[in-house]
């Protein structure tokens, strides 16, 4: 029926297929793991950047309050997003600051 040579060939082919599928599964799982880890790292970095942005905006608001020379007192202050221009901020930075914004058409008195 089956000779020894044919059985060996079938066993070798079966082992080769199972080995190849095992390696493929490991490769897919490792790539998926790396993708998940990169996403986690990006979230942590974005949270750190958001924290730095908040601290910088608070410092700007404090500076504006300390150096404000206006007739009316400051009741509200809004500091916008800090924009950076150029490579490594070589083009400078900008931010918008709004003091005593009008709410519903009524001026804050």
Question: Which SSEs are present, and which pair or pack?
Answer:
Blueprint (H helix, E strand, L loop, with lengths): L3 H63 L10 E3 L3 E3 L6 E3 L2 E3 L10
Antiparallel strand pairs: 1-4, 2-3
Keywords:
two-stranded antiparallel ribbon; single chain; mainly alpha; two-stranded antiparallel sheet
How would you explain this protein's 3D organization?
Helix content is 58%, strand content 11%. It has 109 residues and is mainly alpha-helical. The strands form two sheets. The protein has a two-stranded antiparallel sheet. The protein has a two-stranded antiparallel ribbon with strand order 2-3. It has one helix at residues 4-66, and strands at residues 77-79, 83-85, 92-94, 97-99.
